[in-house]
Amino acid sequence: MFRRYKDYLPLSLLPDDEEGTPYRPQKTDMRRRLLTRGLVLVSVVVNLYFVYSSFTAWPAPLDDYQSLNTHPVVEEKALSFKPPNPRDNAVVTGLYTDAFATAVATLGHTLNVANSSASRLLFYLPDKISKRALCIASVSGWDPIPIERIAPPFSGVHRHFLDQYSKLHLWTLDQRGYESVVYVDADALVRRNFDELFRLPFTFGAVPDVYTTAQGYVTSFNAGVMFLRPDTELYNDMVAKIATARYPAEQAEQAFLNLYFGAEVLRLPYAYNANLAIKKRTPALWDALQDEMRIMHFTMAKPFLQGDYAEVPLNQLERNAEKVARKKPAFKREIVEWLEAWHETRRVYRSKLDKCNALTE
Fold first, then answer.
1. Separation CA 295–CA 312 (nearest Å)
2. d(CA 38, CA 35)
3. Which of 144, 169, 270, 313 has its CA 20 to 30 A from that of 218?
C-alpha cells in the first residue's frame, strides 16, 4: 500500500529549484522550531517540578485531620468564675434586612438556652427594617439599638455585604458602659455557653476562616463571630481609614478588619465559629468539633431564606428548611438542628410572634 508514495520526498530532501539552487530551510523557520522546542522543554521541567512537589510536600494538618487531642478546648477549672455582669458585657447581633428576623429570634433563643448572663443587644438600621421584622427579631430578649448605616467607601462590595460596614458601631458600645462584647452573626446557632470569652485580656479575637477552594484553612479570620473591647477612639480611627486602606473590596468589612487587626488578633478555636465550610472540606474535623462546638455558623446553607436572600413567611419556614436540605444534602443534619431550634422558639414565644406577625408595617 505504500508503493504509490515511493516517489514522494520529505521536505528536507526537496530537489534543487529550476535554476539549480539547492533548497535550504529559512533561518526564520529554524529559529521558530528551536524556540518551540525550548518552550516545550521548559514546560516539561516546570510540570515535573510541580508533580514532584505535590508528592513530597507535607499535607496541611487540618486537611489531613486525625482525632488525636481529645482534651477540652477550655479547662474546666478556668470556668469557675462569676457569670459576666450584663452591665459590663454584651452579646450583639445585627439585623440589616427583614429576611433575617426569624434567624435573629432563633439565635436569641439558643443563647437563652445556653444560659449566658451577658446583655443581648440588637443593632438594626431603622430605614431598612420594618416594625414587624424588628418585633419578630426581638421576641427572644434582644434589646434593639438603632444605628446609622456606614456606607461602603468604594464600589465593588458584594451586594450581600453592602450594609456590613455598619458593624463597626460595635466599637462605640463603650459609650453605653460595656467593657467587652461578643458579636455573633444572625445566621448562627449557639450550642454551648461561651461566657469565658468575656474574661479574655486581649482587645480583639476571632476564628480563622475556612474555604472549600484551594485556599483551605487560612490565617485570615471570619468576622461572623468576634470578641472585642469597645473603644470609640479606635472606632473613629477605623472609620477614618476604611476608604484609603488597601484591601479586597468584595468582602467589605471583613477584609478591612483583617487588615486592621490581622497582626494583633487573638485567633480563637474553631469551636467558637464552626463554619459549615469545615464540614464540606474536612468532615472528620467537623465531627470532632461536635462536643466542643459553641457556635455553629450557617455560611453555606441558610434554612430561613429562600431564593436570593428573600424573606420566608413564618408559616412556611419548615417547608423552606426542608427544601434547602434537599438542595444541600451535605448539611441536612445541621439544617434539621436549626429547624428544631426554630420550633422551640416558635413554641416558647408563640403569642409574641403572632402579635408581631399581625403588624402591617
1. 23
2. 5
3. 169
**Is 79 within 8 Å of 115 (Cβ atoms)?**
no
* Averaged pLDDT, 244-269: 93
Q: What is the tens place of the pLDDT at every residue in 329-348?
A: 999 999 999 999 999 999 99
Q: Is 245 left (phi over 0), alpha (psi -120 to 50) or beta?
A: beta
Residue 32 and residue 34: Cα distance in Å, rounded?
Answer: 5
Question: Using the 8-state DSSP alphabet, how is residue 122 labeled?
Answer: E
Q: How many domains does the chain have?
A: 1
Could you read off the pLDDT of 110-161 as tens digits, one per residue?
Answer: 999 999 999 999 999 999 999 999 999 999 999 999 999 999 998 899 989 9
Query: Going by DSSP bridges, is the β-strand pair 180-184/188-190 parallel, antiparallel, or unpaired?
Result: unpaired
Joined grid coordinates for residue 30: 529554524
3-state SS of 224-253 is EEEEECCCHHHHHHHHHHCCCCCCCCCCHH
What letter does residue 179 receive in the DSSP assignment?
Answer: S
For residue 211 the three cell numbers come to 474555604
Residue 1 lies in a domain: no
**H-helix or E-strand containing 124?**
strand 119-124
Under 8 Å between Cβ of 182 and 226: yes
Question: Is residue 321, in this structure, part of any structural domain at all?
Answer: yes
Give the CATH number of the domain where residue 230 resides: 3.90.550.10
Residues with Cβ within 8 Å of residue 197, at least 6 apart in sequence: 180, 182, 205, 227, 268, 272
* Residue-range definition of the domain harbouring residue 111: 86-357
